[in-house]
Amino acid sequence: MSSPTFQRLALIGCGLMGGSFALALREAGMVQTIAGFSSSDATRQRAVALKVIDQACTSVAQAVQGADLVLLAVPVGAMQTSFEAMRDALAPNALLMDVGSTKCDVIAAAQAGLGERLACFVPAHPIAGKEVAGIEHAEAALYQNHRTILTPLPKTGLARLQAAHDVWAAIGSHVSTMTPEAHDATFAAVSHLPHMLAFAAVNALTSQPQGAAFLDMAGPGFRDFSRIAASDAAVWRDILSANRAEVLTQAAHFRAALDQFEAALKSGNTHALQQLIQQASEVRAGWQLQAHTSCNTTSES
What would the pLDDT profile of 147-165 be if each residue is shown by its tens digit? Predict the structure, then answer.
């Protein structure tokens, strides 16, 4: 498969995710010019200095003008205003994608903001990232050997869906498709709730009078469990809020599982306690990170 090529990429959001996408396309020789917009002038200028973008634009519309590829890499809470800002400047033949970690809310924002240009949009969620944010941490290899989920709309044409697939595949992603609803339920379980639990566990520790002393004694187990608690607060505020219903469903499942552990401890039932631990241990020991496993939930990230 030959890599698709584009005349102009409009990068809306010059941070880790968007910057890494731009660098990957540039390294692969897939784009001629990269225009970028960020609400911060300092970020725009930094993106130019780092050679992530060629042109710093002062508005979404300016960046999108003449672009045949647009990547929306802003927090999910800022999606609708971005869609509205680009609508009149977006070319009818452009391919528009996002990198949001939730999909139902992003699609609703696109439906409200894009008008007749909705057919340009192929929602995407690359399962990649770092605990550190910002354009300084962008790297061309970020998406290599990671999964990217596409959640096409009923209006999405096959040619545009294929183009979206080809772009992510060309920069090293393993691409699969899901329905938006299945996506949000899945990632509430395997990503959004785990992040919330990590945040809560760290807060529970540090809220105790001896929390700081406890933290000083923490070892690799705490390091590994709490790693994702260092994630960007504004980003995760938006993700948890946007996927509220599914996260709350998963929180109820977790609470029921925690109740089982507490009941075993309170009753001194060491046999039940061991069974609960063994059950989890066997599942985790048998699990492997499957970057490229197919996950088609249209009939299956």
Answer: 999 999 998 999 999 999 9
